[in-house]
Write a structure and sequence with these properties.
By secondary structure, this protein is α+β, with helices and mostly antiparallel strands. Helix content is 15%, strand content 22%. The protein contains ten helices and 21 strands.
Length: 496
């Protein structure tokens, strides 16, 4: 279905005090102590959870703790390293942080102010205009004694990658500096400070350096976010057709971080042709909303949240110092936010509205804009280019694969094919040359092929069939050899 991006929404963060901690591994940061009023990373336990988006369907500012406890999945080592991708960021699939003190210790003062942040380089961001880093989003400003009972916070993945614009840091009101665009990756996590103001030296929990011990052993507790698809796109190098089947071959300029491939199929009108359930089950789709893909499936926002609320890249006023967000802030004064000055909002500068069809990004950094004849394509074909899972026609192909045979097709019917590469986090990129077409045809036997070739075949040592009434030299030679052979056989029999 065509995909429409709503205006940039406000983020939400919910906090709820739980009566007791849910059993599970506790993570504590392995960072040096600082001037945190006697507090250290070991003063707190931190756990992260993936949430089923179905329990986060509304943004009404409330949390049903029973729902969260029943559906949440605690982060494993694979969650920390490969769970947060571009689609999860765009779809605002929230992460839960459960934060508490392992025991009411003597470190710190009960009423001491505590700031809780999520992001990266929060210490540099706290310097304000003296650093290129942006201030981190704030989850809470509270006091130490309130953590004697664990508190739970929800945050959008975008806050791992982006700091805030302006002075508002509370993420239920703050605006991120940028969106979930390509070419962004790094590590981030929980930052905590003691005292008022939280300048650089006040942070005793420093998110990007946290480590801890969990069910898999020593795990990296800082969260890696990866919004970048593989740099090298597949290029389809050969297409072979057979009886109800097509064989695709491809290569990539560099393996890079590619972890696997999938093939998508459609008819010429853009409709699915095979049962995608053979290649990704409903159970897989549901499970993988809270589980890493382990490098075996890709994700797009259309697959994860076709009707959901999205983060989009906020427009910026190019004439405003510091990139202050402006609802129509592109700096050209026409009010459409695209910066080309023609007022139609499509960014092409011709003053004409763009067609409704949206195409998928087929390259890193590609905006997915509609160009050329493809703009008139059907919504179904647009969904194919957006890599909808309904078009899957292969299972996961490992990173060393360079060809696959797709069977179950109809002879004489033309099909479109895309080869999709993806990284371990599930960010996809399709083959550089776009959909390729092929038409399966029946496999012909030797004599049928001879008939199709006007009875001239077998030049490489096979029989050459001559037209009726005109025996060929090969025919005459074969007949003579046969007669000589029969004559020799008769002489051997008589000699006995």
């Amino acid at each position: 279905m065509p995909f429409a991006s709503p205006p940039l929404p406000r983020s939400s963060v919910y906090a709820v005090a739980l009566a007791s901690a849910v059993p599970g591994p506790a993570f504590a940061a392995a960072a040096p102590d600082s001037d945190g009023g006697g507090l250290s990373p070991s003063s707190f336990t931190a756990k992260y959870f993936a949430l089923d988006p179905e329990t986060d369907a509304t943004n009404d500012g409330t949390v049903d703790s029973d729902d969260w406890l029943q559906t949440r999945v605690e982060f494993t080592a694979d969650h920390f390293s490969d769970f947060v991708n571009q689609a999860r960021c765009e779809c605002r699939h929230k992460i839960m942080l459960e934060l508490g003190r392992p025991a009411a210790g003597n470190d710190g003062n009960a009423g001491e102010p505590i700031g809780v942040y999520v992001g990266h380089d929060c210490d540099d961001g706290a310097k304000g205009n003296t650093s290129l880093a942006r201030p981190c989003g704030q989850l809470a400003g509270t006091t130490l004694d309130l953590f004697d009972r664990p508190k739970t916070y929800l945050f959008d993945p975008i806050w791992l990658a982006q700091g805030v614009v302006g002075d508002q840091q509370e993420i239920d009101e703050a605006e991120p500096y940028a969106g979930c665009g390509d070419q962004i990756e790094g590590t981030a996590g929980l930052w905590m400070c003691a005292g008022e103001g939280c300048m650089n030296g006040d942070f005793f929990m420093r998110g990007a350096s946290q480590t801890g011990t969990g069910p898999q052993g020593n795990e990296q507790v800082s969260i890696r976010y990866d919004f970048s698809p593989p740099r090298s796109q597949p290029v389809i190098t050969d297409i072979g057709v057979g009886d109800g089947a097509v064989r695709l071959s491809w290569n990539v300029a560099a393996q890079g971080d590619i972890q696997g491939y999938r093939v998508l199929c459609a008819d010429v009108d853009g409709n699915p042709v095979l049962d995608a359930g053979e290649f990704i089950s409903l159970g897989d789709r549901t499970t993988r909303l809270t589980q890493p893909s382990y490098g075996s499936l890709y994700y797009t926002r259309e697959n994860l949240c076709p009707d959901g609320v999205l983060w989009t890249d906020p427009p910026f006023d190019n004439d405003s110092p510091g990139g202050t967000p402006n609802p129509n802030g592109d700096g050209d004064g026409d009010g459409d936010g695209d910066g080309d000055g023609d007022g139609d909002g499509d960014g092409d500068g011709d003053g004409e509205l763009a067609p409704a069809a949206e195409l998928a990004r087929t390259a890193p950094g590609d905006s997915g804009g509609c160009t050329g004849e493809d703009c008139a394509e059907s919504p179904a074909n647009a969904a194919f280019r957006r890599l909808d899972w309904e078009y899957l026609c292969s299972a996961h192909l490992d990173l060393n694969s360079n060809s696959v045979r797709i069977s179950g097709l109809d002879n004489g019917t033309t099909y479109q094919f895309l080869v999709v590469a993806y990284d371990k986090a599930g960010n996809p990129v399709a083959n550089a040359d776009g959909p390729r077409e092929a038409t399966p045809r029946p496999t012909r036997g030797f004599w049928e092929q001879c008939a199709e070739q006007d009875h001239h075949c077998g030049e490489a040592g096979f029989c050459r069939v001559a037209p009726a009434g005109r025996p060929s030299a090969a025919h005459r030679f074969a007949a003579i050899a046969l007669l000589l052979g029969l004559g020799g056989l008769r002489r051997r029999r008589r000699s006995k």
